[in-house]
UniProtKB/TrEMBL annotation, chains A, B:
Annotated keywords: Aminotransferase, Pyridoxal phosphate, Signal, Transferase
Residues annotated as domain Aminotransferase class I/classII large: 74-439
Record organism: Diacronema lutheri (Unicellular marine alga)
Cofactor(s) required, per the database record: pyridoxal 5'-phosphate
The protein, known as: Aminotransferase class I/classII large domain-containing protein
InterPro entries: Aminotransferase_I/II_large, DapL/ALD1, PyrdxlP-dep_Trfase, PyrdxlP-dep_Trfase_major, PyrdxlP-dep_Trfase_small
């Protein structure tokens, strides 16, 4: 095969000291490739029926705005995105670590893939009271990313179980990894064959009936829950750990919303449950605590006691995955994480949490006053509104069009979310108040 | 199964406003789990014979130090880790974007998973002269991480080809993804069955003999090359693109060292080659340019014209992967990326590149004066020293023990790297000078 045109295309890097581009393309056209790429699309990617949930919400929001350019501003109670500025002490940590990179003494390049030693130690001591060893803490750029890497570690031969509804990343990443079969006519609506869906709804107080649940290798469990806002009690988590032990399963416990728990006695970590270190990984994040949704910092705990069936410590394989396809969280951002865990930082986080929980209370009370049955919103930043059988995507559109408020349809979190709507408490207070007014005007009889 | 002890373990989050821990563990012991975890270890993880290369180098370095506590300081010409402070203008971009997060107006949470629009546009215009559209640019936390995600997108049914020697992440991540078979007695030393190894050595001027290379689905190709320091010419890259077109392959072109190219006419991007947009993905990084090895910022180009065999744009699946298991590069870090691409930033980068290239020249000339045959080090920050058949791990140890200089054994980059040693030019100048003195004292006849 001979290309019919040969064009010297210039690439810039045109700063002083770099050679100037050799030539420039001017209206040159390439002939179409005469041989198509022969690489087959990964069939697992094709199993995903729709785009990832949150970009899809953004797409619908933008489509509404394009069609209604004169709309009043849209208020988002959609994606759980923090809106309050980063407080002073924590900000100082971020700025300080950035500034140090400009000095000869303070500059640092590649860090340990597992995170800065001080931060691992501080997470272990300040957040886990020393129950977890520093070497069991792996710092990362966030839980979403860690869940993707966990799937790569587990491989495609495991069976995964999820709460239904749940954060869509567990299922989507399991599908991408090849843990599921293609959807066929026998597949229940909205499910992926091969995933164990553990129904969580008002009838079981949002905790699955484990006596009736098939065994899975990996059990994704989130408390406080996204999207339902339910928190699992100590008794429930004990049941979960015992069930995992009985079945030889690994729990991936998502504790990203743990500090929103205010009720005494409700566990903030799976490791509060005896024996959990032998069966559970915990993923966690500074995103919602410290306003780090865009800053990107999280961590995953892989206890040394956790072992695969052949005796290989899970921690070894996790370490290998992290070293090979991750290069550590940003050194600037880890400086912010250290500041978060100073006393001043923890106090600032506490204030932020209280702010968002007050929003949650407002949203919850408003929806209740409008006659809706409402879940969550007490020890969690999400309110889960029962639509009494109505379609959640229809209600999403109806509220967007009538009140110009973005919510998240429960169906986006799995089939078990149909008939519910998730409201996020992460909006600024004024936006929250106005959203409540708009919803009241819309729904008041 | 009943747990014999039930311990209320306290988890902190003990900032003011948060409930105090319920109780504390005092010397409590868990009984050993009586049922082991039944989850089978992912067999692909077991196919990796050794730890990831660079931590292994660090381990050996630390072992030497532990055994020789009175050793003079070790000089690292090992991992390609930048050592010069981040220059003023770029630092200002990082600090400024951190500072803005502390203000109501400047705060931002989740950004687009694909990166800030301004940065995507600036990469397209400043680095690719508009040859690439902004929507083809995906900003990330680095190339290493993107290579891991690319493997997830491609899946386990593709055949991957690599230059031998090459950056170990291509092969290791392919193995993790399940693209290879277990090593058996018929496997050539150091290879993974299922990977196409394209020998690159002095006999072929470090460019593979494509007429003799089996077809692969995905071809990883790095120029300027890590570890050999070789750069592919326009003619060679044209050959590569034509070969990919003929075979229906996808090239993953790793251009992380592109701005080190000073020779006129040598392409800095695969897209300088006509037709490349229909067959090539390009991964790239700010790490080596701007001293961002610890800051973490890179990008991947997936042209809209690149399609899988069934016509699905590769870009669609890449976007789905990025949205699902990635949450965008840190907003602070992206502010630094924007500053890099200002004229002042490009000038600062150019100065940094010149600094490291002067180190490379020094190392190259020193090794040549000592009688070694040396490759690379001209348009690349790596010097590849021919050991004339000697074991590279032995030479690594010998130099560490005699000169207290860390290098990287070529064998760590694949079987084709055996008999070579990689020296990195990223050390500070004074360290480079002293390393040259120590090597001269060691090797001078």
């Amino acid at each position: 095969m001979v290309l019919s045109t040969f064009i010297a295309v210039a690439i810039a890097w045109s700063g002083p000291g770099m050679r100037a581009p050799v030539s420039r393309v001017a209206g040159a056209q390439m002939v179409a490739a005469d041989i198509a790429v022969g690489v087959k699309r990964n069939p697992n990617m094709a199993k995903l029926q729709a785009g990832y949930l949150f970009p899809e919400i953004g797409r619908r929001r933008n489509a509404y705005l394009a069609a209604h350019p004169d709309s009043r501003p849209i208020i988002s109670l959609g994606i759980g995105d923090t809106t309050q500025p980063i407080p002073t002490h924590i900000l100082g940590g971020l700025e300080g670590s950035a500034k140090r990179l400009g000095t000869k003494e303070g500059y640092s390049g590649y860090g340990a893939e597992q995170g800065v030693g001080d931060l691992r130690a501080k997470i272990a001591s300040k957040l886990y009271n020393g129950l977890i060893e520093p070497e069991e803490v792996f710092v990362s750029d966030g839980s979403k990313c860690d869940i993707g890497r966990l799937q790569l570690m587990f491989g495609n031969a495991v069976v995964s179980a999820v709460q239904d509804p749940s954060y869509p990343v567990y299922v989507d990443s399991a599908v991408m990894m090849g843990q599921t079969r293609p959807v066929d006519s026998a597949t229940p609506q909205g499910q992926h064959p091969g995933i164990v869906y553990m129904a969580c709804n008002p009838s079981n107080n949002f905790f699955p009936d484990l006596s009736n649940t098939p065994r899975a290798d990996v059990i994704y469990f989130c408390s406080p829950n996204n999207p339902t806002g339910a928190t699992a009690s100590r008794e429930q988590l004990t049941q979960l750990v015992q069930w995992a032990k009985k079945n030889g399963s690994i729990i991936v416990f998502d504790a990203a919303y743990a500090p929103f728990i205010k009720s005494a006695g409700t566990p903030k970590s799976i490791y509060e449950i005896p024996g959990a270190k032998e069966v559970a990984i915990e993923v966690n994040s500074f995103s919602k605590y410290a306003g780090f949704t865009g800053v990107r910092l999280g961590w995953t705990i892989v206890p040394s006691a956790l072992k695969f069936a052949d005796g290989t410590p899970v921690r070894n394989d996790w370490n290998r995955v992290m070293c090979t396809i991750f290069n550590g969280a940003s050194n600037i951002v880890q400086g912010g994480g250290l500041a978060c865990l100073d006393d001043e930082g923890l106090e600032e986080i506490s204030t932020l949490i209280d702010y968002y929980l007050d929003n949650a209370k407002l949203l919850r009370e408003t929806m209740e006053a409008l006659g809706f049955t409402v879940h969550g919103g007490a020890d969690a930043p999400y309110i889960f509104v029962d639509l009494k059988g109505k379609s959640s995507w229809d209600m999403f559109s109806h509220i967007l069009e009538t009140a110009q408020v973005v919510t998240i349809p429960g169906a986006g979190f799995g089939p078990g979310g149909e008939g519910f709507l998730r409201l996020s408490a992460f909006a600024p207070r004024a936006a929250c108040v106005e959203a409540c007014e708009r919803l009241t005007a819309m729904f008041k009889q």
